[in-house]
Amino acid sequence: MSDARRRHMVLTMFMHPAGYHNYSWRGPDSRAEDWGELDIITELVGYAQAAKVDAVFFADTTSAGPLMGGDTKVLGIYEPITAMSALAGLTKDIGLIGTASTTFSHPYTLARQFAGLDTLSGGRAGWNIVTSFMGNENYGLDEMPDGPERYRRAHEFVDVARRLWASWDEDAVIADRAGGWWIDPKRIHTIDHDGAYYKVKGPINMRRSPQGGPVLVQAGSSGPGIEFGATFAELIYTAQPLRDKSIDFYANYKALVETKGRRADEVNIIPGILPIVGRTEAEAAEYAEELESWIDYAHAKGQLQKSLGIDISDLDYDDSVPMERFDEANYNTPTSRGNIFRAQAGRGDTVRDMIRASAKAAGHQWIVGSASRVADLMVDWFEARACDGFNLNAPSYPEGYRRVCELLVPELQERGYFHDEYPGGTLRENLAAGR
Question: 349 — phi, psi (to 5°)?
């Protein structure tokens, strides 16, 4: 594998007005009444842009199931394309990454949407490609296709989208007033795709966008997901709470990327982290205690049981989950989180411990401490080649977002591990600038 190394981290920020801690929204200043409105996400992205964060990231789900069950981590109340389009005109430099599913859309439609967003934002669009694991009931499917099937469809979907974005040459727009042609038809090409899932003649009917298509982002941690990400993605989101395992994951992923004929440094691997930050250790601990005080343990135990896929109703909060129960587990959660639950039980974590950890970070690592202490951990991971940066999961809004952007990011900038001005004009340029 190449020995090339980034000079500074990639930092993106999770756009989640509820706060990443499941129950922080119960605090009096959470603005829960405003969720779904523009002002609140404008304020959130404002914090991130002032800190020069590379991009904000909108996750999404097309099912109301989690919301109906009281899960605030997977709300889906901001549809990413419309939310990012609104923010494109209210922001200047920060990248806008949004989730869209290859299972519930069509490549021509999505290619047009992201080409439009990339153009309207001046080259700041990113597409987090998901195959979805829920939502079939809203699209006429009795059940979700299995994982391998969804990824086969996704491979063809993304291939078609990329060819559509490239169907206009960079100089296709000639604006020839005298000759009466805005475009040169010879510089626009059909793609004539006829595949297993899609038949698309093309070309796209929109001009080539500033980046030639959005930055491609992916977060699948299953075997097919990793294969897919290594083939297409430029940015990988992952849940890696343990340093040594993250080092192995990073090395293996980069090696796989190179087997695809790509350079290892073309792909940035950024695990999530939930930093509970204070100006001092004592202030951080006080903030963490406040977050814990909002947990609804009865509700959280039910949520944990659903995620585990096993019965824990007979266990008290201070009991551990017997390992033998995992033999029958049917995780209602992505594979990576299922493995984390098993590891927690294996080291003797109690139901209460698992509830608290799940409420905070849902499988990502979390840390309580001063900005200096949190930065120490992040720098250690970065230098150890456990990651190329981090997706910052602020625990609460507005306080958690402010602390991450106004305390933690400046600490990393002061140490030279993050830029203090945007280095490029597009998201792709900013992500590559640290090479």
Answer: -60, 140
CB 201 within 8 A of CB 147: no
Q: How many CB atoms lie within 10 A of CB 205?
A: 12
Q: What would the 3-class secondary structure string for 211-273 be?
A: CCCCEEEECCCCHHHHHHHHHHCCEEEECCCCHHHHHHHHHHHHHHHHHCCCCHHHCEEEEEE
Contact call for residues 4 and 263 (beta carbons, < 8 A): yes
Which segments of the chain have a pLDDT < 50? Answer: 1-2
DSSP string of 74-101, one letter each residue: S---S-HHHHHHHHHTT-SSSEEEEEEE
CA 262 to chain CA centroid, nearest Å: 22
For residues 241 and 363, the answer to whether their CB atoms sit within 8 Å is yes
Predicted local confidence at residue 337, as pLDDT: 62
Residue 127, helix vs strand vs coil: strand
Closest CA to 395 of 432, 360, 433, 435: 360
Domain boundaries, the chain: 10-281+363-432
Q: Are the beta carbons of 331 and 365 closer than 8 angstroms?
A: no
Amino acid, single-letter form, for residue 71: D
pTM: 0.93
Each residue's pLDDT tens digit, 62-105: 888 878 877 777 678 899 999 999 999 999 999 999 999 999 99
39-61 pLDDT tens trace: 999 999 999 999 999 999 999 98
CATH architecture of the region 10-281+363-432? Alpha-Beta Barrel (3.20)
